[in-house]
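Record 1 of the preview.
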Amino acid sequence: MNDHDLQRDIETTLAAAEPQVEVLLVERAGGVVRLTIDHPDGVTLGLCERVTHALPEVREEHALEVSSPGRERPLTKPDHFRRFVGRRARVRTREARDGHRSFTGELVGASEREVTIAADTGVIAIPYDDIHRSNLVEE
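->
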């Protein structure tokens, strides 16, 4: 199962068990699945425990780490980018664009297909499919 399918399965399971939990990022490293979540009331240790117990199928095959987004919140979906237009972010691309793979600056736009960032090197539009990782950056 690829990471996208794993994230979809986790989101489906949590939609029933913890409907207010938003899955921000699912990453696999070795035998560990790292799950970054958010909640309108914040992420507590108790919420992380409930999410862990709601995912027995994942725990059968992997070690599971559940955490809050922290200050450098991951941005993985168009809605995330739209919500934080006006904030500073770092966007890393899969392939080099104009000789760079990392762009840091103000999020100035987010459509269904791409995010636009005012980086030091100029304003650049990056299709979501080209993004390897992205997160907010402390001001």
